[in-house]
Amino acid sequence: MEYEEAVRTLASRWLEVAAPGAGRRPAEDFVVSPAGVWLAFGALAAGAAGPTAARFGQLLGVSGPGAARAVTSAARALAATDSLAVATGVWSTEPLRDTFRAALPDVGFGPLREQAEIDAWVRDATGGLIRELPLRVTAATRLVLVNAPALKARWAVPFAAAETAARDFTDAAGVVHRVPTMHRRLSRSEVWTVPGGVTVVELGCAAAADGTPGARVRLVLGEPGAPPAAVLPAAWSDRRRPVEADRVGVAVPRLSLRARTDLTGPLRALGLTAALSPGADFSALADRPLYVDAAVQECLLNVAELGVEAAAVTAVTMRATAVTRQPLRIAFDRPFGIVLLSGAGEAPLLTAWQAAAPAGPQPPA
């Protein structure tokens, strides 16, 4: 699928410029949705023209009318995964072009009135995992675009709660913590290595009764001290090598990650300055000149014995211009990556890095 390659490319570039651990910055916990960024800005790219559209094309691989078709196709493909829902909404004070609305048939459009209405939409779209829009709508806001993928799924093979026990986890600073850690056996097909010293473990979610595939979670463990940008892309690499082991066991800390990320800095670093400036050309969106003044994403990821919960809300606001086969034990007991994928694809829905001592899943805020 073309969108998968575009999302993988965006994810890799994002990790290089924006992930904690890039450059000389220390690695720390984070969770971000590359697919959420691509879907939200892909929908916005459908309203871009001129140099602004060209920049979208360079970053996302799509722009103009082609962006609308790609976003619609991608959202429908992702929603074909059991327990995974993808929703996009647009609220505006400005009249939007009929061609823009028609090009995005799965997007909900409405008038921009009170933020409470959008907050309620966010809660509904994420099943309560995220309670409100991750940014504030102001009197100057003319348009709000929100994309929200959400998943609540059970493992195809759950971890036995009785086997969860305290185990050492060495954080990025070298401090050892005792954290609740889950254990179970894997088949050889669920684990592989990637050149660069990275081990990948895939945990599948249960399929629906009608055979609709479940999502997959890939845990990626690199060499000690390796930064996220050098480890996480192994989750979607096709350079797989089977492990040489008759039995495979895995130890995974129970965890909960939540993060709110300002997207504007990374987007500028990735070349999307035109859309974030008053000179932006969104003439295929509305008559009045508009530009992106804020973009924030909030993500939540819970991993526990019975299953996984994940949600991402990407919010964009616009203003008017002015070889010996030995038993193998894989312990995620130091900083590691987590990648959530749909049931039948390779586009990263969420990428996360657990650097601190994991905290167990918490009820939605």
UniProtKB/TrEMBL annotation:
InterPro entries, per this entry?
Answer: Serpin_dom, Serpin_fam, Serpin_sf, Serpin_sf_1, Serpin_sf_2
- Which ranges carry the Serpin domain? 15-358
- Known Pfam families for this protein? Serpin (PF00079)
Note the PANTHER family from the entry: GH10112P-RELATED, SERINE PROTEASE INHIBITOR, SERPIN
Q: Which family does it belong to?
A: Belongs to the serpin family.
What's the name of the protein?
A: Serpin family protein
